[in-house]
DNA sequence: TTGCAACAGTTTCAAACGAAACTATCTTGT
DNA sequence: ACAAGATAGTTTCGTTTGAAACTGTTGCAA
């Protein structure tokens, strides 16, 4: 029996790693490329940043939310949300009024100006998304959706080393 | 014939957009979660950042490259590479010598210290990747690979609006 | 050759970032 | 009722970032 089968796992090479095949790297590069493109889109057309776009996206239905709600729904941290809101107040995209029952919470609503942007930006966003997945069949799109969902769940689990055993079923 | 079929596309709602279903958003959040986790891994164990890890990854085979080569292979920009190299010189992870034929180019090689990190970090990186794709079948992993490749190609094409028609077949 | 554009890499500057500290408000336990 | 702790949101501080300007080197053209 020849020793051929052991050649690949010889200990001289400590298991090759090609960056371009490494999933974290690939995800980072892809997300970066995409983000950069859409950011430029939003910036040049509406003068808003990605955090501002996300806030517009979650408030675009006309809902009223607190900053904390927004942070949760956009996966941004509260500092980022606070700063984005402050910019949006300056540019009259958002309306802030003190909560009645809880004065710590500020109730946030989009202004008509922001709603107009929303109406215009959503088709653009969807168009970009459509172009991005242009070469994918409907079935592939569904698979992608599924895989991303599962990867995110797994990544979340691996991100919280020991903590939050009980929070696991939050969803 | 009842008007039922027109209800979904009534113009009152300007096409809904749920952030959590929006591909650019999902990619961004996923890549962020993953990056943050591996960054913490590398930082606590070896005291290096992601840019430094990427440089170690491409030089880990023992190859000698210029800063520009590294920038291209890691998809980082030259500023980021320059700064990472400068940090690595300080911590004796990299060796820089002036090019002989072209004195603009600096030839970069890993020190034994960095090679030792490489030997130790690669299994960790692969282990994380394996854990991340734990719940995926071999077939699903292959599909994911394929989909990411195609999305990246498409994203690249959409990122360069009018330019680089001729560069399209560069790979 | 000399001058000029292209290139490699570094530095500068202003913006963006995250962690931690802080202010203000609300909740809970005694 | 009130102190102790939790929560909402802002501010501060040191670091990281990317674009543009800059330095030095090479290649090319007149």
What's this entry about, in short?
Chain A is built from six helices and two strands; from the N terminus they run H-H-H-H-E-E-H-H.
CATH architecture of one domain in chain A: Orthogonal Bundle
Low-confidence stretches of chain A: 1-12, 162-171
Shape of chain A: globular
Instruction: Determine and state the CATH class of one domain in chain A.
Output: Mainly Alpha
Largest pleated sheet of chain A: 2 strands, antiparallel
- Total beta strands of chain A: 2
Task: Give the C-alpha Rg of chain A.
Answer: 22 Å
CATH superfamily of one domain in chain A: Winged helix-like DNA-binding domain superfamily/Winged helix DNA-binding domain
**Quaternary organisation of the protein chains:** homodimer
Strand content of chain A: 5-15%
End-to-end separation of chain A in angstroms reads 53 Å
Outline the secondary-structure elements.
2 copies of one chain form a homodimer.
Chain A: H1 23-46, H2 50-59, H3 67-74, H4 78-90, E1 94-98, E2 106-110, H5 112-132, H6 138-159
The first copy, chain A, binds a DNA duplex (30 and 30 nucleotides) through residues 49, 66-68, 77-83, 85-86, 99, 102-106.
């Amino acid at each position: 029996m020849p020793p051929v089968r052991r050649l690949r796992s010889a200990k001289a090479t400590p298991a090759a790693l090609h960056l371009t095949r490494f999933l974290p790297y690939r995800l980072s590069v892809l997300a970066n490329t995409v983000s950069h493109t859409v950011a430029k889109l939003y910036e040049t057309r509406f003068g808003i940043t990605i955090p501002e776009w996300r806030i517009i996206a979650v408030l675009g239905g006309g809902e009223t939310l607190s900053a904390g709600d927004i942070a949760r729904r956009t996966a941004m941290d509260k500092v980022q949300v606070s700063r984005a809101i402050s910019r949006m107040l300056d540019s009259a995209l958002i309306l802030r009024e003190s909560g009645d029952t809880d004065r710590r919470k500020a109730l946030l609503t989009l202004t008509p100006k922001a709603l107009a942007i929303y109406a215009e930006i959503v088709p653009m966003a969807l168009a970009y998304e459509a172009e991005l997945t242009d070469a994918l069949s409907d079935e592939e799109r569904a698979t992608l959706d599924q895989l991303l969902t599962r990867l995110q769940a797994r990544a979340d689990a691996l991100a919280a080393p020991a903590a939050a055993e009980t929070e696991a079923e939050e969803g």
